[in-house]
Design a protein that fits this description.
Elements lengths: L1 H28 L1 H23 L5 H32 L5 H20 L7 H26 L11
Helix pairs in contact: 1-2, 1-3, 1-5, 3-4, 3-5, 4-5
Length: 159
Amino acid sequence: MLRWLLLIPFACLVAMGAGLFFLGAASVASPAVAMLIGGGIERLIDILFGLAESGVDPAPAAQAAFALIGKLGLAIIVAPVVLVAVGSELFRLRSGLLQSGFTGLLAALLPLAMLRLSRAPSTAEIQIISGLFLVGAATGFVYWLIAGRGAGGERPAQA
């Protein structure tokens, strides 16, 4: 019970923080991911200031844009770690490969499902999907390091 109350939430929070770090590292390693993160935020700020300069209230556009950024962050960093953590604990699947693989898969697929990509992705989009998979896999590995491998001790054999 202590595992569910303390260790798993702590491991999820540390893994999410590591995921933000890995997302920054992916933006350094991949120009496509850097353009998604840095270029998207730069364009957003330019658009919002352009709206303000032209006399249009930028608040509705800013609220919609930041809501989308929040949903993407939730889909890339938070949801994969939490879903895999709860699923692995319920089914007692504590393999590092499963933790990393499922978290990476969800980190790559949840944003695509959210944006409803209904065509074949371009090469730049494949780079972004690959980067998101690696970010998710690294995040799942950090979770596994804290809560997966032998955490909670061995269960006594029942007679």
